[in-house]
From TrEMBL, chain A:
InterPro entries: BP-dep_ABC_trans_perm, MetI-like, MetI-like_sf
Protein name, UniProt field: Sugar ABC transporter permease
Record-stated family: Belongs to the binding-protein-dependent transport system permease family.
Pfam families per record: BPD_transp_1
SUPFAM superfamilies: MetI-like
Species name: Ancylobacter defluvii
Keywords assigned by UniProt, alphabetized: Cell membrane, Membrane, Transmembrane, Transmembrane helix, Transport
One cellular-component annotation, GO: plasma membrane
Major localization listed first in the record, in broad terms: membrane
Membrane topology: Multi-pass membrane protein
Keyword Transport tagged: yes
Automatic annotation (TrEMBL), chain B:
SUPFAM superfamilies with a match to the protein in the record: MOP-like, P-loop containing nucleoside triphosphate hydrolases
Record carries keyword Repressor: no
Membrane disposition: Peripheral membrane protein
Annotated protein name in UniProt: ABC transporter ATP-binding protein
Source species: Ancylobacter defluvii
UniProt keyword annotations, A-Z: ATP-binding, Cell membrane, Membrane, Nucleotide-binding, Translocase, Transport
Length: 325, 380
């Protein structure tokens, strides 16, 4: 994410100068970008370092820069544990793995798997599912708005956008009541539909811009070449809209992945996603910060991978309009 | 290949009428140019023939079938777009083979026909290249390849040379015409460039404000313009108009302009008193000291093979195409004489030509060699 950001910053700063910037100003600009990247990276580094600290190290003051790395946070994240007497632990057979050993040092034994993996899986299913739905519906709607004379198109587009204008907290209670009636509360399908509804407006608006840029001649050529409009859409328009679709997908995914307010209000059990779950990881005698940090670190990985895979498209999506021919 | 018949075709976008009651027939194997300024309805006409726009009224027949409201994909036509519309995510081979793919042609057959087409257009060496890196002329050829690979009923082209450099456009004009001579495909070609239309077309339809002003061969259009609009649009410099007020009887051979008697082709109709214009092509003007119609040299453009001399007369500026040898001094008084049997007379109010012996059979035969030169001059 930060690499895309810094590149965008660089583009923006160089766009203002008419002449080729001098080596000195290039160096200064580079230094500023690197500095900015470092500043944005500090919280991420902090989270990662906390995730590999032992619980005492994680709350020591002043914070420890040098410490012995520990996997305790990750072990605690994935397991539930029970306290036992030292005698009981001594009588056990040798530990079967790292986590077993780490846990025994704290006079505890692993009792079973924690809820993190199912919550993480919920997040994956709901975020990717809603992104897929929002982008698919958004692409079709955007194509319709772009190519056909839709009655009241401007009003409809405004109406679509207006769904994003209210804060989640304002609509959460009506949605909660509705979902209870419909049997959708605390279901993955319900969350997927909700995130799709929120994201589809963003998708329609972003994608309409991209599809407007694709000349109609391509579809017309395909239709004359013997294809129906739908075939032309899939064979000619979609391949050219991939940049826009990828950028839109990332924005939708980031929203659905990070969404906290709806998730914490509408899910509590089987459909709970990772964001409301992670802060509830409580160790013995207070918050288990290394486990929370470990959860956050793992939580960052999918979005990081997805963004790196699509970073070229994302960059074009952000600077859309400026770099297109 | 097939004949295209357009019957009282009409297209309105809301209150704006783009095409008004157009009727014409493109014979099997004929090359028609739809010529006119932008906004004259030529592209709309073409898009209706293609099925990309539906007409407001009238009909379109393709090889005898009524296709007026058929989908574009069901008409079996090919269209070459102004910006070529080559699919950027496919290479040259896939672009050319794309129309065959929709027809379910087997892969080996597609490969064979794509290669055959590429050879015909001399682009077989770039078949596996990406279309985004191609030069303008090669893009043009690929677009043509995609059009001819399917052997459609007709070709429709919307200003396909519009984006090419002037120098390269000449090459493509020749190539297009040669291609047409080889495959004899019924073609409708939209252009605003009279040179392209004159050089390539068998017939030209000159359009203005949604109306076909004249539908005829290039020679007919140049020599016997049906309206002042056509006379002014075709030819460079355009036809001169000498305006005068008169009423003339059928059989009249003399027009009195600025007190001078000017001989013209014999009229075949009575002309009610009103504003008239005598149309004179620049190459039909000679300087003659004896002529009573006089003016002063206003300027001269030297063109190498000839020169355009502008003369200021009582009726306005007149441009003459004269041999390049003599040079003229600005301000010199000269007399103007015209090639009498090549003049057109127009009614200024309606803008239409008044029938005269000019419009009768023999002209084209008598003056063939002269017309050939006229055309060359027109292109220079």
């Amino acid at each position: 994410m930060s690499s895309a950001k810094s590149a965008a910053t660089a583009t923006a700063s160089s766009a203002h100068s008419v002449v080729e910037p001098s080596p000195t100003s290039k160096r200064v600009a580079g230094a500023i970008v690197i500095l900015y990247a470092l500043i944005t990276l500090v919280p991420l580094v902090w989270i990662f370092l906390t995730s590999i600290k032992s619980p005492p190290d994680s709350i020591s003051y002043p914070p420890k820069i040098l410490f012995t790395p520990s996997l305790e946070g990750y072990c605690n994240l994935f397991t539930t544990r029970t306290r036992q007497t030292p005698d009981y632990i001594a009588a056990l057979p040798p530990p079967s793995g790292v986590c077993d050993a780490v846990t025994r040092e704290r006079n505890m034994v692993i009792a079973g798997a924690s809820n993190f993996l199912p919550r993480f899986a919920n997040s994956l299913i709901i975020a990717f599912g809603s992104t897929f739905l929002a982008v698919s519906l958004g692409t079709l709607a955007a194509y319709g708005f772009s190519r056909f004379k839709v009655p009241l198109a401007d009003d409809l587009l405004f109406f679509i956008l207006s769904t994003r204008m209210m804060p989640p907290i304002a609509v959460a209670i009506p949605i909660y009541l509705m979902y209870r009636q419909l049997g959708l509360s605390d279901t993955a399908l319900g969350m997927m539909l909700l995130y799709t509804a929120v994201n589809v407006s963003l998708a329609v608006w972003l994608l309409k811009g991209f599809i407007d840029e694709i000349p109609r001649e391509y579809e017309e050529a395909a239709m004359i070449d013997g294809y129906t409009r739908l075939q032309a859409f899939f064979k000619v328009v979609l391949p050219q809209a991939t940049t826009g679709i990828a950028a839109t997908a990332i924005f939708c995914l980031i929203f659905a992945w990070n969404e906290y307010a709806f998730a914490s209000l509408l899910t509590s059990g089987s459909a709970q996603t990772a964001p409301p779950f992670i802060p509830t990881i409580i160790g013995e005698g207070g918050q288990d910060w290394p486990a929370v940090a470990a959860g956050t670190t793992i939580f960052l990985v999918p979005i990081l991978v997805f963004t790196i895979l699509l970073r070229k498209q994302l960059l074009r999506g952000i600077t859309f309009g400026a770099v297109r021919k | 290949m097939a004949e295209i018949r357009v019957d009282h075709l009409r297209k309105a976008f809301g209150d704006f009428v783009a095409v008004q009651d157009s009727s014409f027939t493109v014979e099997d194997g004929e090359f028609l140019a739809l010529l006119g300024p932008s906004g004259c309805g030529k592209t709309t006409t073409l898009r209706m023939i293609a099925g990309l726009e539906l007409p407001t009224g009238g009909g379109i027949h393709l090889g005898g079938d009524d296709v007026t409201y058929k989908r574009a994909s069901e008409r079996d036509i090919a269209f070459v777009f102004q910006l070529f519309a080559l699919y950027p995510h496919m290479n040259v081979r896939k672009n050319i083979g794309f129309p065959l793919l929709s027809q379910g042609v087997p892969k080996a057959e597609i490969k064979r026909r794509v290669e055959e087409t590429a050879k015909l257009l001399q682009i077989d060496h770039i078949l596996d290249k990406s279309v985004s890196g191609l030069a303008g002329g090669d893009r043009q050829r690929v677009a043509l390849g995609r059009a001819i690979v399917r052997r459609p009923k007709c070709f429709l082209m919307d200003e396909p040379l519009g984006t090419l450099d002037a120098e390269f456009r000449d090459v493509m004009v020749r190539e297009l015409r040669e291609l047409h001579n080889r495959i004899h495909a019924t073609t409708v070609y939209v252009t605003h460039d009279q040179i392209e239309a004159m050089a390539m077309a068998d017939k030209i339809a000159v359009m203005n404000h949604g109306i076909i002003e004249q539908f005829a061969t290039p020679r007919e259009i140049y020599n016997r313009p049906a309206s002042m609009y056509v006379a002014d649009f075709i030819g460079s410099p355009p036809m001169n108009f000498l305006r005068f007020s008169a009423g003339l009887p059928k059989g009249a051979r003399i027009a009195r302009i600025d007190g001078a008697d000017v001989q013209m082709p014999e009229l075949r109709a009575d002309v009610a008193p009103g504003e008239l214009a005598l149309g004179v092509r620049p190459e039909h003007i000679r300087f003659s000291d004896a002529s009573p119609l006089r003016g002063a040299i206003y300027g001269a453009e030297y063109l190498g093979t000839n020169q355009i001399v502008t003369v200021e007369t009582a009726g306005g500026l007149v441009r003459a195409r004269l041999p390049a040898e003599r040079s003229y001094r600005i301000g010199d008084r000269v007399g103007l004489s015209f090639v009498a049997d090549r003049l057109s007379l127009f009614d200024c109010r309606s803008g239409r030509a008044i029938p005269s012996t000019l419009h009768e059979g023999t002209l084209a035969r008598d003056t063939r060699h002269r017309e050939v030169r006229d055309l060359e001059v027109g292109h220079g």
